[in-house]
Amino acid sequence: MDHHRVIVHPGGSLDVRRCNKLKFLQALLLAARLPPTAAQEDIVCTSDTKNIFVISTPNLQTTKAYAKVRGIVLMEREHPASTYVAASGTTSRGIVREVGADLPDSELQRLFVSSHNPTLKGVRRIKDTTTILLLFDRLKVPHYVCCGMLLLRCTLYKRQIDTCRNCGRVGHRQDLCPTPSNPPDLTLSV
Fold first, then answer.
1. Where do the CCHC-type domain residues begin and end (predicted)?
2. 4-86: what fold?
3. What is the pTM for the complete model shown?
4. Quick one: residue 96, left, alpha or beta (phi over 0 = left, psi -120 to 50 = alpha)?
């Protein structure tokens, strides 16, 4: 059976290492408007380094419900949350640079996802740049892709590894730090 992975990144000062994981998952089900019976086949694990929950579920409807969550109420306090569905293990990502910043996502989908690019599954812009992220349905990224009638150079997407400037740990950025009030200990012990 094929499983879908949903990444849940709790925001604010919610630290995955220190929170009650069972209560968090109950709050997540409530925020996703799912009964506990809908999540019986789900598997959840945490990544303390990245401060995320990873949910693996075989049900596509459950996946969509988790992906819509934008906030979680835990211990009578609202915490923002960022959720997204992770790509499967048989996909790869490539980038195309210098594509007009004025093109909307719907137009990018129309121009890129066509019979000229049979392994292309999805397209999205990286923030407000002219760089486009392409998701391919195989492990190899082609050297060139078609954008309408135009042939463009495509390169492998290499994600940068985030390092927090606040706590010094690898795996998250400073604005997503689970311990924003604790500066790093910069003293050297000899």
1. 164-178
2. Alpha-Beta Plaits (3.30.70)
3. 0.60
4. beta
Pairing of strands 150-153, 155-156: unpaired
Sequence letter at residue 21: K
Average confidence (pLDDT) over 71-90? 85
Q: What is the pLDDT of residues 6-52, one digit of tens each?
A: 999 988 788 888 888 899 999 999 999 999 898 899 999 999 888 89
Task: Tell me the torsion sign for CA atoms 61, 66, 69, 73.
Answer: positive
Tell me the C-alpha distance between 145 and 151, whole Å.
Answer: 6
The 10 Å CB-count burial string (b at 16+, else e) for 154-184 is beebeeeeeebebbebeebeeebbbbeeeee
